[in-house]
Amino acid sequence: MARSQPRKRRLRYIGEPPSSAPNVSSSQGQSQAPVGGVASSPGHSSHGFKGKLAAMKSRFIQSHRGPSISSANPIASEGAQENPGSRQVAKDVDTRGLLSKANLDPDPALVGDDVDVARQAFESIKPIPCIGQMAVETVAQASTAVAVFQNLSSTHLQPLKIFNDVVTTIENVHPYAQIALGILRAASQLIITEATLDNAISELLRKVASVYAFLLEDDTIKNIDTIKVPLAKIARVISACAQFIKDYSEVTNFWKRLGRNIMSETQTAIDDYTKTLDELMQQLRDCQTQDVQINVYRVIEDLNMEGMAYAGGAGLNMLKKCLENTRTEILRDIINWVNDTRPDAPCVLWLHGQAGGGKSTIAHTIASWLKDVGGLGSCFCFARDRQAERREEKMLTTISCDLASRYPAFRRSLGRVLAEDPSLKTTPDLSQQWQKLILEPLLKAAGAIVGNVVLVIDALDESGEVLWRKHILSLLTSKEAANMSSVRILLTSRPLPDIERALRDAMNVRAICLDDVPAELTQRDITLFVSKELLSLKDSFRPPEIQQIVHKSNGSFEWARLACAFIRPYRDGLTVKERLDEVIALQPAEGRTLLDTTYSAILESAIPPSPIPLARFGSVMQQVLLMIEPVSMVTLDSFRECFPDESDDYNVAIILRFMAPMLDGVTNLVSPICLLHSSFYDFLTDRSRSGVYFVDTSNSYDLTFASLRVLSEHLQFNICGLESSYLSNSEIPDLAERINKNIPLHLSYSCRFWAQHLQKTAFDPILAGLVVAIVGSEKILFWLEIMSLLGEVGQAADALFCTTEWLQGPDGVEDILTLVQDGIAFIQNFGSVIAHSSSHLYISALPFVPSNTMLSAKLMPKFSGLAKVDKGQPKEWAAAKQALQGHTSLVNSVAFSPDGKTIVSGSDDKIVRIWNAGTGEQMGGPLQGHMSWVQSVAFSPDGGRVASGSDDKTVRVWDVEKGMQIGGPLQGHTDWVQSVAFSPDSKRVVSGSYDNTVRVWDVERGVQIGSPLLGHTASVNAVAFSHDGRKIVSASDDHTVRVWDVKKGGLHGTLICGHTSTISSAAFSYDSRRIVSGSDDMTIRVWDAKRGVQIGNSFQGHTDWVQSVTFSPDRMTIVSGSYDKTVRIWDVGRGVQIGSPLQGHDHWVQSVAFSLDGRRIVSGSYDNTLRVWDAQGYKNMINLKLPTDNETVTTAYSICFSSSSSSHALQGSDQLLDGVLQEEEDVRSEPVKLHSDGWIRGPKRRLLLWIPPMFRVPFYSMWNTAVIPRGSCIELDLSQMVHGNKWHECYVKS
């Protein structure tokens, strides 16, 4: 698309020059002038002069930005520094010396002698003087103590070194003991490699050594399986000790510790570890297992992870474990992989198999065992019935939080990463999450963590979105992941095609298929399982009966579980023996599995296949399956009371109480109803498998109707009875209790999920009426109030977006659609204040709703006692919807995708980024490859590709879906590429360059087509294809526009002349009949493309160089961007500017583009941001930048933001001192202040009013008596505003 400027290239030698920059002497060829003046040099062309002027502008901007200051490192505040050299030596010892020892088979006799020697040396050790005495000794005495300790440490470490040799010879132990031994070995290696130990922790080292010496005794090794439980606990404590020792020396050095007052807490930790180890050792000697409290002490700094999404409830389920002595072989195999220290060991183990094979049980067993020994990094589980929680979006941030809470070294490294870039806490970019929040901290923490870091990801196949899985799988199989030799990722799933394609050939993935486990092992394990499940019926079940079930299961644990559940008495009428006979007699019909046959048999015995029971079964199970999150029978019944058909109002228990073999939670009324296995869902929703018990999940009408009716009947103002508006939601001490008391579960569910059900339902006038009853009345605010209290405001805008999609198409819904769109704008503008305080939804958001909106007309008559905008009240929603941030340098070029859903941008940070145009979130990772500034980007008309041109002299083409470059760079230009554009058929790309040429490229073959188009005598700044594909337009520093014949490869017609300076941009109209151009002469001109003559007068209004221009799709308007920091829209027919400039960027506007539907404009700026504008409501805009100045009031009794101080001042301002009159004077007189986040706060940070960004600057100051001219500042009338304990009076009940 059209975009370029040679002036910015003068920045090339300012700051960090590219490697290709010539070595130019600072005194050579320079001419200086004051800012705003002109520096010229004889003999330079016009574009050379222009470049120098741009360089001066750029230097001026850079000088005012100031130097870049890196964030302070909170971890380093104690003055500790890491010695990379010593760490590398330690690492070399760990990975080379110890591993070579581990591969030896030591002579048992020699090992025994070594143990005896170590024990004798241990007994001869005399106690070291106490730490408290050492702290007051002289430096010379401290140095002597260090030397003594270093001599003693070699004796302490001897049992650990011997253990490393011996443990590799222990075989055929229980997997639980095996995992404990692995942790003990890893902990010993970490302690051995620690070279900076001192007297402060020598006592702890002595105790650890005594434990290892005991573990080396013959009796201990022989009975390792019988002591596996206390052994696991010892492993956990020893691991904690190793981390404590390593962390202690990492955070501060020896001299710091002598000077700091941490001796007592250090001694407390050592005493606690010693006591715990003594208790566990005694249990080992007595072969007993008792509960022992294990405290973990960590020397770690605080880390603020507020804002990082965490998926609560997605972690380890300790109840979901393998039965004792089952799955032994595969568990041992996985543990061997976990403990494998070889650098080439695969970092991912994919455990897969068909439904019912026990994948999740194995994963949770491994995770729980690792947790017992202190070796679990994180466990993250997906579940089909929890897809509404969008766990996939929180997986990587949750894992990062888990690792930070588990490993101090990781926590410190993560802290440094977040200190440098706090935006990473909330980034939706999976690539950045993986790289910055997990891999980078792990890499920096290497060598300070006991053993391998184990991550368990269970049921990936139930994560929902295939596209998300594609991104995650690409990260897990990446080269970066493969290089993390100390990371182990256990991944379970069914072998879905997309998962299998990604993992089957990956180099760093090992696959284990449960379907390939030998039948005799599976039968052994199922025998143990069935015996335990039917233990209460042991009088009726002898080994022959149990073997019948085992044989029938054919290796399926889920079928065995289902059979046992069927056999156990859950209904009357049949004996246990008769139920067993029924199960054994089941024979799958042709094409059906035994599991399906069993499901059918259980359903037939519980639900008679007659019309009424089947109808009720279908209705209830449809409700259960369609619930976005599991709810109890009580809540299900509450919804059924609101179903459209009164005959559906019956208790769900009449169906669900017979479903115990397949459903969890049916034995009481308050537990959530969940499917016990995903295979039952697959069975019910496949008519070919379930027959008359088929459940149709394609129609969500009943639940949609019920949800909307619940909202209509139960929403109310101030539902939790909040007394004061001065507190944020988080400051209300009993908010959770209020929510539980006043917001029933069916109302909470309806608030969160009504729109998702609506989206799955066909348009219906009755449902539309229910939607209007909510969005067209004050109930929309009551709904948002509950969403605020529940912490779900982020979902509210999504709900209304879903509603707009649902309303597309039908006639007569324009008013509803307008109301919904007003609701979206309301949330977009006031979402932060709504989320912060539910009361300020009314008193801080409502006053600023534009007066001409339908939402204002519906709501404002219902409310009074609000602040008013006396001067400057907006009439329509502001044009700017959001600022897209992510580039770390100047944004040079932007473009919409053909469907308008995504935006591409190119920047001086050498990166191309793709954005979601609706949410402002970055999509996928950055497109990296250019070696210098990206000057121009363009979407292909088919939406599948992006082209980019750069100062590295290349054009590159990218696959949008894969996020990868297609082929190699297109090379041929001999200087910077200024502009690129696609042909209408997406097969060709045209480029313009500073080398004065235009070139056309074949995208498929990656080659230049024909010769360069020659004629321009200076830099080509912009190129574009006509929309019929026959012509190319180019604009140049030579002040001309040229049109080229694509087929002939030559000039089409005559030169287009008229501009008096550099032309930075040119574009065709969508009918290819006109050309628009923008120039440094600050004008925009429209030309007849065929005749090459100007149409009408030039468009004037910009006050600086015009950098970018383009037509709207309907050819009626033109949008332009300029160095005067504005975006302007022009009427083509009348040749005049429409309305006011769109202001918001605080630096030069470099690029503009229309969406294909003409509704939106995107602009890119040197302020490093993109902004998306509403082209139909562009007359006003929101300045999303925070103010730099704070407004301060010196007294809490005279609060006014208006020139009419006597009549517009806040009434009842003394409420701000409620409860603080007995406080100190400085608290009582604390000023009322407008903070940078927009909140006007009183004493003790009490919330008075929130000011939207657009009203903060310019804002009428408390210190002004008048502002001239009057009306140039925003003025507020607070005289009628209710606040504090009277805030609820704002609602006028009808």
UniProtKB/TrEMBL annotation:
What keywords sit in the KW lines? Coiled coil, Repeat, WD repeat
PROSITE patterns, per this entry? WD_REPEATS_1, WD_REPEATS_2, WD_REPEATS_REGION
Question: In this entry, which stretches build a coiled coil?
Answer: 263-290
User: What Gene3D superfamilies does the annotation carry?
Assistant: P-loop containing nucleotide triphosphate hydrolases, YVTN repeat-like/Quinoprotein amine dehydrogenase
Q: Which Pfam families does this entry report, sorted A to Z? A: NPHP3_N (PF24883), WD40 (PF00400)
Domain (Nephrocystin 3-like N-terminal) ranges:
334-494
Bias (Basic residues) ranges: 1-12
Indicate, by first and last residue, each region the UniProt record lists as having compositional bias (Polar residues). 21-33
Any one GO cellular component localisation term in the record: transferase complex
Q: What is the protein name given in its UniProt record? A: Nephrocystin 3-like N-terminal domain-containing protein
Q: Which organism is it from?
A: Pisolithus tinctorius Marx 270
